[in-house]
Amino acid sequence: MSYNETKDRNETMKLVCVLSLLLLILLLLSLYLMNNLEYPTANTEPKTQYMELPTLENMSLSGAKQVLDALDISYEVIPTQSRVANRVEKIEYLGKEEDGKKLYEIGTTVKLHANEVGADKVIYLTFDDGPMVRYNLDMTVYYTTEELLDVLDEYGVKATFFLAGYQMVKSDRSHFVNELYKKGHLIACHSYSHDFGKIYDSTNDFIADVKEFESALENILGKEKYNSIGKYIRFPGGTNSNGVISGDESLEYINAIRGEGYKVYDWTLLTNDADDHYRLAGESDKDYFMRSMKNGLEGAKGKNKPLILLMHDKMEMTDVLPDILDYLIGEGYYFDTLENCPEYTTAE
Fold first, then answer.
1. Bridge partner residues of 235 (DSSP)
2. What is the pTM of this model?
3. 119-340: which CATH number, 3.90.870.10, 1.50.10.20, 3.40.50.2300, 3.20.20.370?
């Protein structure tokens, strides 16, 4: 082998060695990188999605269910021991709050805390003619609406108050209107004047009187609170108003006030606390009011009517109210306000 051939062979061997070394270095570098570098992996976890949850607290249970059904949100009713029936007291949900909004985590279950009760065991307590203050001859106070509210607070129940406008504008009782609102009772209309001769002269006079009530109520509560409550009315004397209006004429008044957005309510049982015609000789207020109410309950059985109890904002009624509530609770009844009751009138 010539000198040149030997030289070329050596050069080739050197090149092969260098390339082999480079390949080995690349291989070792690749193995190092594979073992020491973290590579991003695809995120297979689904992104959590949220939906704004409507305000459901204090709404009727049936209304809350309808809202959630419409939004395709699953829910569960958690029983409570409240004396207020079929009303959402608290909401439990998975989610978060942002900017004061409750954001519900889609796909989870909303829990509605409420006392779900059949309609035959719900009584709607209603009080007419307030708010009231009574004075002794020396002008010291012997009764106020506050005493009535204290009893309702003690028993944890809510009621509907059909207020008379001329009463609520008096300086010594207008603050009770805000107390009613604050405590979660329903404020409703019982006309402004409660003057049969005035309001039942024509439907126009009736509407004008109610408009006066609305203006006074908005002035006391303020626009925001006023706009947050619905429109509910009880005619002074009822829709068959002691013979002042009845029959077709009653229906004219009912249709006229419904045209103003009102729901109309009479009653299905009463305590007769404003009528002594049926009081037995020597019968006490307690015995008379209790007997009247029990007769009403018995008469309402099986008639598929809402149990709407008529009472008045007065000391005699408030004094007996604990006995009435004890009896009703003992008989398994619960309570709610008329916003969760179907409209009911005797004129129809």
1. none
2. 0.83
3. 3.20.20.370
Residue 241: which of 263, 208, 266 has the closest Cα?
Answer: 266
| pLDDT tens-digit map of 83-142 | 999 999 999 999 999 988 999 999 999 999 999 999 999 999 999 999 999 999 999 999
Tell me which amino acid residue 140 is.
T
Q: 5 to each of 1, 11, 16, 155, how far by Cα in Å?
A: 6, 10, 17, 116
Residues 321 and 151: beta-carbon distance below 8 Å: yes
What does the alpha-carbon distance between residue 39 and residue 92 come to, in Å, rounded to a whole number? 41
Q: Which residues pair with 125 in a beta bridge?
A: 309
H or E element, residue 226: helix 223-228
The domain segmentation of the chain, as residue ranges, is 50-114, 119-340
Q: Helix, strand, or coil here: 290?
A: helix
Can you tell me the distance from the alpha carbon of 182 to that of 167, in angstroms, rounded to the nearest whole number? 19
Domain at 50-114, CATH from 2.60.300, 3.30.10, 3.30.470, 2.40.50: 3.30.10
3-class secondary structure per residue, 105-127:
ECCCCEEEEECCCCHHHEEEEEE
CA distances from 148 to 4, 99, 218, 337 (A): 124, 39, 23, 16
Cβ neighbours of 103 (radius 10 Å): 17
Count of beta carbons in the 10 Å neighbourhood of residue 172:
11
Token couple for 324: 């009435």
- Look at the chain and count its residues: 348
Residue type, 226: Y
Residue located via tokens 């594979």? 34
Mean pLDDT, residues 205-225: 98
Is 42 strand, coil or helix? Answer: coil
